[in-house]
# Entry
Amino acid sequence: MKILINFIRNLLGYLIIAVDLITRGTKKKRAPEKQKAINQELTKFSLYQFSACPFCTKTRRAMYKLNLPIEKRNASVGSKHRQELLEGGGRIKVPCLRIEENGQVEWMYESSEIISYLENRFA
Ligand SMILES: N[C@@H](CCC(=O)N[C@@H](CS)C(=O)NCC(=O)O)C(=O)O
# Structure
């Protein structure tokens, strides 16, 4: 039964990825110097995620549209990033945006909060 539920969950996840790829539209365009500065700023960011999680897909879609090439870290079972997420953020829940700035590390959970934060800062 558990195998069947996992299979259906993964199938739905990959279906969402496929629909997202087909419908996600175009990336935000910026002047090359501006984009370069943003890319540099984004080296302080990483997104802990699963590939087939709908909340992660929603977050990746927003990142794509805003043209924010943030490093993605796979936090699935058995991965080294899963342990980092647990130790740093305090729980295994994705998506989670890690922001390392001014000598401090912030772990931001909740897809809606992450998307609002990125929109306010980079749109
Ligand atoms: N309200 C959260 C929901 C996130 C969520 O439920 N994520 C699931 C994956 S789709 C999760 O991390 N579950 C923990 C686990 O699978 O270990 C959001 O919008 O980010």
Observations:
- The longest helix spans residues 2-23.
- Residues 50, 53, 55, 92-95, 110-112 surround glutathione (CB under 6 Å).
- The chain has a mean pLDDT of 95.
- The chain has one domain: 2-122.
